[in-house]
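note to self: dont lose this again. the chain is below, predicted strucutre after it. 78 aa total, dont forget to put it in the shared folder this time
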Amino acid sequence: MASQAVTFPIEKNVAITLHISVGSVDDNAYFFAPDGSVALGFLADVLDALDMIHEHIHTINGKTPEQIHKELVSGEIA
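---
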């Protein structure tokens, strides 16, 4: 069976599931927006933690790193 040639760069999705403990109202507000989605500030912290590979990251939860930073600066934190 012949293998297909791959031309780089290519884009792929990576799913990471975190199991967390939420021990207080403050913890909950850090991780989750009022609508139950992942809080933007937490996403920004995840992006900061992944800074060593940031050039490979296109989006986190559908938002580009630039969108996340712009929303944080503008006060649109959800």
